[in-house]
Amino acid sequence: MCGITGVYAFTEAGRGALERLPAAVASLQHRGPDAGGVYLHGPLGLGHRRLSLIAPTASADQPFTSADGRYTLVFNGEIFNYGKLRKELEAKGASFRTDSDTEVLLHLYARAGQECLKKLTGFFALAIYDAVEESLFLARDRYGEKPLLYYKDADRFLFGSELIALLRLGVPRELDYTSLYQYLQLTYVPAPASMLQGVKKLQAGQSLYIRHQRVQENVWYRLPFDGEKVAHNPLSYIQQQAKLRKLLQQAVSDRLVADVPVGAFLSGGIDSSVVVALAAQQVPRLKTYAVGFPDQPFFDETRYARLVADKHGTDHTELRLSNAELYQNLSGMLDSLSEPFADSSALAVFALSRHVGQEVKAVLSGDGADELFAGYNKHRAEFKVLQGGFKASTVEKLKFIWDVLPKSRNSFAANKVRQLQRFAAGARLPPAERYWLWASWQQEDEALALLAPLNRQAAQSRLYRARKSRLLDYINKNLYDINNVLCADWRMVLANDMLPKIDLMGMAHGLEIRSPYLDHRLVKFAFSLPVSSKIDERQQKKILRDTFKDLLPNEVHRRPKQGFEIPLRAFLQSEGRCLVNDLLSEEFVRAQGVFDVQQVQQIRCLLGSEKAGLVQHTAWMLLVFQRWWQKYMS
Predict the structure, then answer these.
(1) Distance CA 114, CA 313 (A)
(2) Is the pLDDT confidence value at 235 over 90?
(3) d(CA 620, CA 362)
(4) Which family does this protein fall into (predicted)?
(5) What's the pLDDT score for residue 569?
C-alpha cells in the first residue's frame, strides 16, 4: 500500500511541475512511511511513497525500473496472486531480482501490455512509463479500492493518489459548484468529478494511455451483471451457499497474504464477523479491533463484537471513544482530507486506524457485503415498495403524521419515525428519483438553498443533470429489481463513500484495509444471484446469514443491520461546538461568498436546540467543507 504521483510535461512551461514533484511526494508520506523515491526521464517524473507489506526490502522500493531500463512503475496496492503469476512468467523465461508483487506486475505489463490488468487479483492504482514509446499508462482496479486523480491542460498531465499531491503540483484552485451541490446531498463528490474544476478521478475499472499529448481513456472492466442471466441461474440455493462459502474462504485467504502480520476490524455486524470467523481458521489468535462509544449506548456495538471474538479465540482489542476523545481526533481527521468528505463515521475509522496502525500494517474489513447482498435499510424499503401490500400503502398514506413527528438518528423511536417518513416520501416516486432520495442526506431543494443565490445557477446546470443521470443508469434498465439498486450502490455509494473512507482513514496512519467481499470472483458470483437469495420477507443478506450461520453467535446471526455511525448530535453540541462557532460564523460565511448566510445561521441556531437532530448532518457537511476551504482555498 502506497502513494503515487507524477508529471508528464508536454511543453517547457509544463516542466515547472517537475520541480514541485518532491513536494508532492512528501505530501503522501502518510500513505507510505517506509520509503520514498523519485524517477525523472526528460519530460516525465514519477514519485512514490511505500508502505512495505510484501518483500519489505530496499530492492523492491519504487519507482521500480525493469532490468533493461525501458519500463518504470509506481504502484499503490496489492496483487494477491503474484506468486502464481510469477511462476507462469518464470516458465516463459522471465528472471526476477526481488520477491515483490511490484516486479511481477512490471514483467506482466512488459509481456501482455494493457491486457495484463485482467490477470490480476487484488486492488491497485498504477502508472507505468515506457521510455521507448515515451508513453504513460495509468489504471485503477475493478472497484475503485485505490484512488487516482488527474489533471490535464495544454502544458502538462498531473496525477496523484490524493488531491493534496495535485495541489502541490500546482493545479488551479477553482471550485466546481456542481460538485459542491452533489456533495451537499451525498456527503461526497462522485467520480469522475472532484471538488476542483479540471481535476478528475479515474473511475473504477478504467485506464488512461498518454502519448504525444493525447489521452486515450479505456474501460477495462465492467460490473458483471446481466438481468436476464440472473433470472435463469441454474444453481439451487444449497449449491449457491456452497459456492459462496468456497469463494469467500479463498478471498479471505488471499487477503492474508503479506510478509507482516494482518489483523481484522470487527464491528459486531454480520459482514465483519464472517470475515473474522474465516480468518481465525487460518491465523491463530488473530488480532481483532472494535470501536465503541460508552457515552452513547445506542451507537455501541462492542458487545456483539466481543461475542464473535470469544467464539473464535481472537486477540481482541476494544477502543472506547468518549466525545472528548472523538474531538481529540477531529483535527487530524480533517487534516487528512484534501477533498471534502463528510461521512461522519470516518471520524471513528480514523481514531480506530490510529490505534490499530501502531500494532499492524494491514487489516481485513467487511466492506462491500451490504452492496452485494442487500444489507441496507433502503434495500428493505425498496423490497417493500416492489412487493406492495397493505403495510406499505398504509405507511405511505400516513406521511402527514411522519412529517410532523420528531425525527433523528439518535434514538430508536426517533430513528424509526425518520425511516417511515423517508419510506413514505420515496414510495410515491419513480425508481430513479426514489433511489436518489434514499441515497441522499438532503433533498435537492434543501442543498440548493444552502448556496449563495449567485452560485445556484452554476450548481444546478446541465452538467449536474448529466452527472446525476449517469449515476442512475443502472436504475433505468428495462429489467428492474433490487439487483439494479445494488449495481447503482456499487458504482455510487461503495466506490465514492465506503471505499474512500477506509482508504483515506487507514492510509492517514499507514494502515492498509482489505475487504474480501471485493474479490472480483466473489462479486461476479454475487451479481449472478437472484434477489430471492439475498432478501425476503424475513431477512436481509439472506444467503450470507444462512451460509455462515454455524460460524456466528446466535445473537449476531439474528440481529438486524445497524449502520456504523458516531453520536454526531451530542458531539456537535459539546466538544465540537467551538468548531461550529468558528467555521459557521456569520463573518466567515459572508466573507467566503459560497453559502447563503441566512441559511447557515439558521442551522447554527437549530443545532443548539432540541431540533438539532434535523440539521446535524447538514452542519457536519458544512463544517468539513469549511475546514477544507480554510486550509486550501482561502
Answers:
(1) 44
(2) yes
(3) 29
(4) Belongs to the asparagine synthetase family.
(5) 83
pLDDT band at 562 (very low <50, low <70, confident <90, very high): low
Q: Look at residue 458 and tell me if it is in a domain.
A: no
Answer whether 24's CB lies under 8 Å from 160's CB: yes
Q: Is 212 exposed, middle or buried (0-12, 13-18, 19+ CB in 10 A)?
A: exposed
166: nearest Cα among 18, 24, 3: 24
Residue 340, in any domain of the structure: yes
| Per-residue pLDDT band at 59 (split at 50, 70, 90) | confident
At 107 the three-state DSSP class reads helix
- Span 133-148, average pLDDT: 97
In the predicted model, is pLDDT for residue 564 greater than 60? Answer: no
Domain boundary among 538, 558, 578: 558
Mean predicted confidence (pLDDT) in 317-325 = 87
563 pLDDT higher than 60: no
Beta bridge partners of 362: 262, 512
- Residue-wise over 539-573: b if at least 16 C-beta within 10 A, else e? bbbbbbbbbbeebbbeebbeeebeebbbbbbbbbb
Q: What is the pLDDT of residues 409-461, one digit of tens each?
A: 666 677 777 777 887 887 888 999 999 999 999 999 999 999 999 999 999 98
> Of 188, 219, 250, which one is at a domain's C-terminal end?
219
Q: Give yes or no: residues 188 and 243 share one domain.
A: no
86/106 Cα distance (integer angstroms)? 11
pLDDT at 559: 77
If one counts every other C-beta atom within 10 angstroms of the C-beta of residue 478, the result is 7
Cα 313 from Cα 284, distance rounded (Å): 8
1's CB contacts (< 8 A; 6+ apart) are 31, 32, 51, 53, 76, 77, 78, 361, 362, 507, 510, 512
* pLDDT the model gives residue 610: 82
Q: Do residues 534 and 371 lie in contact, with contact meaning Cβ atoms separated by under 8 Å?
A: no
CB 352 within 8 A of CB 326: no
Domain of residue 129, residue span: 2-219
CATH number at residue 296: 3.40.50.620
Residue 558: its pLDDT value, please?
A: 82
Q: 179 and 59 in one domain?
A: yes
User: Cβ(172)–Cβ(136) under 8 Å?
Assistant: no
Place of cell 449536474: 464
pLDDT in tens, 391-422: 767 766 666 677 667 666 666 677 777 777 88
CA–CA distance, 423 with 409 (Å, rounded to integer) = 15
Residues 169 and 232 in one domain: no
398: left (phi over 0), alpha (psi -120 to 50) or beta: alpha
pLDDT at 576 over 90: no
Q: Judge if 155 and 261 occupy the same domain.
A: no
pTM of the model: 0.92
Helix (H, G, I), strand (E, B) or coil at 75: strand
Q: What is the dihedral of CA 518, 317, 34, 332, to 10 degrees?
A: 90
Are residues 572 and 495 located together in one domain of the fold? no
Query: At 160, which CATH number?
Result: 3.60.20.10
In terms of domains, do 170 and 100 share one? yes
Evaluate whether residue 480 is within a structural domain. no
| In-domain check, residue 446 | no
Let me know whether 357 and 241 are in one domain: yes
Q: What is the dihedral of CA 367, 371, 374, 376, to 10 degrees?
A: 70
Residue 64 has pLDDT above 70, yes or no: yes
Residue type, 3: G
Reported as a pLDDT band with limits 50, 70 and 90, residue 541 is very high
How many domains is the chain partitioned into structurally? 3
Q: In terms of domains, do 554 and 574 share one?
A: no
